[in-house]
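Continuing the batch. This is chain 6 of the set; chains 1 through 5 are on the previous pages. Same settings as before, nothing changed between runs. Recording input and output for traceability.
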Amino acid sequence: MDLHVPDDLNEKKSIMRLKEQLISAIPYVPTSAEAKRFLLSHDIGDLLHIYHFWRQRFPQPVARRYHAPSGVRNDPLYVRHKARIGQLKRKIEVGEDVSAYLSRRAHNKALDINGYRESKSFNSSRDLLLVCEGFYHLHLAPLPERTDEILVALVTPDLFEVIGLFTHDLFTEDSLNPAYVKYNQAVEAYLARRFPSGGIFLGGPGGGMQNAAGSSIASTFWQIHHRKILSHVEAYPDGLNGFTIKLYGEIFDRQTRFVDPKWEVADDGRLLIRDRKNKHEFWADGSNWQGQPWS
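Output for chain 6:
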């Protein structure tokens, strides 16, 4: 019987499996064994951060209320493309996946392992508008078709709020075009709606903020929160197995001795404990844990 219990979180077998899962989901180049070993050498918190930084580029396909204020709807560019915008609007309202409307970079750009190793920075591979401003930008036609026009919007779990319709002149090679006056005016109008009596906001107008490495502050907070969950669960007697058995008793008033749990990150960003033996999943909701059957 092996009585050795690893002290370091990264040595836990359940965490090592989670690291493998995260790395398989992170697009990176070169896709070599050496590059994978480099990523595996990172703390689980770092890998959670990198995963979230890439995953947040793709809004979850859930039904959202679509809102475009009158000033945006009366824009001649918006009126000219009303039919195409209407098709996109319907997909958003019924909760279809609109990932194909995102920029090619969201689909094709991978983490440059060599560049990241040298600079410890994400500057060359981030979505500038999303990380710094907090806004998504979508073309008016899905891949492989593209349009010069782009719809910029704030996307929350229940709202798709259009900031404006612009052309790709909004972007230079590696930054926002400071001479693109229309965007600045649209942001000012958005902030006037959000703070009608004045006020301040932190980070970009849509809530975007970057950390010192050029990635998202949202990813930093997400990483910290979920690493704490991992540490708390793995420190429980018998680790993930023992904690899962405890959850069955607390949530379902059910006693079980046999479980086969593993950590997973769901598409909606929840960190899950999935018990493959009993077909249940659990997740932390604030300070409480929730659970449900899955098939």
